[in-house]
Design a protein that fits this description.
The protein is an alpha+beta fold and 231 residues long. It contains five helices and twelve strands. It folds into two domains: 88 residues, Winged helix-like DNA-binding domain superfamily/Winged helix DNA-binding domain (Arc Repressor Mutant, subunit A, Orthogonal Bundle), CATH 1.10.10.10; 133 residues, Umud Fragment, subunit A, CATH 2.10.109. The strands form two sheets. Strands 3, 4, 5, 6, 7, 8, 9, 10, 11 and 12 form a ten-stranded mixed β-sheet that branches. The chain has a two-stranded antiparallel ribbon with strand order 1-2.
């Protein structure tokens, strides 16, 4: 038997997958269930997985599949498998799995727009544009690309106009160069550093200052794994 929260999360996952074919983020799940922390979502997902209601799709960050719904829910809308998710799994765009399946020398990644390497700018999400990325830049996770706007990461070898390859993730280690969502509205490319209960976003250019934020103001959207430049 499911708890109320498990039941609500399962129906929310099912609805989102039917609507978009993409698993909602932990932030979306947390907001939908009115929970205060992501750890609660992790526990609910683990419980649903152990009871056979969902399963995690391999080689894709955050990808979940609803296997069945509770008996007191309508089963009419639940296909044998979530076909949109199955299509995503088959394509595996941005994963090493695609390369192993004959994707060739490169893999197309979504190019979401320009990201500030100076001060933060509003996040851009242009899903219509793609860029071919060499296979050897990619790991097993989900990836996307961004065009750099600004010069605050010059000393890290990242120039204005470069295309950076980002592995989607929600955590970072000190020293990682990350895409950081600042106060829920703006993104920036900076070096990540913890300072007690604060987060420092450090530039790699002496003309720019390190910015310090409360941990609650920063959400890591991914970490830098590759860079491409046109001459």
């Amino acid at each position: 038997m499911l708890t109320r929260k498990q039941y609500d999360l399962l129906l929310f996952l099912h609805a989102k997958l039917q609507e978009t074919g993409i698993s909602p983020s932990f932030e979306e799940m947390k907001a939908a269930l009115n929970l205060k922390s992501k750890s609660g979502i992790h526990r609910l997902i683990t419980g649903l997985e152990e009871r056979g209601f969902i399963r995690r799709l391999p080689h894709r960050a955050r990808a979940l599949e609803v296997v069945k719904l509770p008996e007191n829910s309508s089963m009419e809308d639940l296909p044998t498998r979530n076909r949109r998710v199955e299509n995503i799994q088959t394509q595996e765009i941005g994963t090493r799995g695609a390369a192993m399946r004959g994707a060739g020398e490169s893999v197309p990644l979504p190019l979401y727009g320009r990201i500030a390497a100076g001060t933060p700018i509003e996040a851009l999400r242009d899903h219509s544009t793609q860029v071919d990325v060499p296979i050897n830049m990619l790991g097993r996770g989900d990836h996307y690309a961004l065009e750099v706007d600004g010069d605050s990461m010059l000393e890290a070898g990242i120039f204005d106009g470069d295309t950076v390859v980002i592995e989607r993730c929600e955590t970072a280690r000190d020293g990682d160069i990350v895409v950081a969502l600042v106060e829920g509205a703006e993104v920036t490319l900076k070096k990540f550093r913890r300072r007690g209960h604060k987060i420092a976003l450090e530039p790699a250019n002496r003309d720019y200052q390190t910015r310090i934020y409360d941990a609650s103001q920063i959400n890591v959207q991914g970490r830098l794994v590759g860079l491409m430049r046109q001459y």
